[in-house]
Amino acid sequence: MGLPRPLVETIEAELGPIGAPVPVGGGDISRAARVGLADGGDLLIKWHQNAPIGMFSAERRGLALLRTAEALRVPQVLLQQEATERCPAFIALEWLGRGSGSGDVAAALGRGLARLHREVGPHFGLDHNNFIGANPQPNRPADNWISFFRDQRLAFQMELAAKSGRLPRARAQQLVKLLARLDD
């Protein structure tokens, strides 16, 4: 897999020469590759030819918020750009490696995720909207988790699915019942 030439040119103009891309999996909507830098470091580059406007900038902001919790190692964003006429939208991140399947690594991840989820803000939501995959995801502040989760996660995605014809009527009826009883 090669990186689009304009993407390579943009990254190299900012960060210096990069090595040959090595495809990495895990992304559902974007392509991703690991590339080496001349100084010996590595980058994870994610790009999308038709990314929704703001998708990677929202990811950059989300990673910055995660970093403030100091609960887990979060990759630094080295470069991010919306699509241009020549270049697809992309984000270039510090490469953290592939991880390990060992019990120690899994336990450390679990402890870090627990610390992250103990962080409390003044409300549920953010000061900006973001994405779940390529779908928009609203983040209007809410005073309680149930209303935030019901209205801005489940109900919003149900509406998108219904508008696109991907929510069967029987499933929609079940979900409406669930939303009505979510407080329970």
Structure description:
By secondary structure, the protein is α+β, with helices and mostly antiparallel strands. Helix content is 39%, strand content 17%. It is built from five helices and seven strands, in the order H-E-E-E-H-E-E-H-E-E-H-H. The strands form two sheets. The protein has a five-stranded antiparallel β-sheet with strand order 1-2-3-5-4, with helices on both faces. Strands 6-7 form a two-stranded antiparallel sheet. Helix 4 runs antiparallel to helix 5. The N and C termini lie far apart (49 Å).
Instruction: Characterize the biggest β-sheet.
Output: 5 strands, antiparallel
- Regions with pLDDT < 50 over 5+ consecutive residues? none
Write down the overall mean pLDDT: 93
Gyration radius (Cα, Å) is: 19 Å
Principal-axes geometry comes out as globular
Series of H and E elements: HEEEHEEHEEHH
Strands across the major sheet, in which order?
A: 1-2-3-5-4
Q: How many strands in all?
A: 7
Q: Give the helix proportion (percent range).
A: 25-40%
Number of helices: 5
What secondary-structure arrangement, pairings included, does this model have?
Layout: H1 5-15, E1 22-23, E2 31-36, E3 42-48, H2 55-68, E4 77-81, E5 89-94, H3 103-117, E6 130-132, E7 135-137, H4 145-163, H5 169-180
Antiparallel strand pairs: 1-2, 2-3, 3-5, 4-5, 6-7
Helix pairs in contact: 4-5
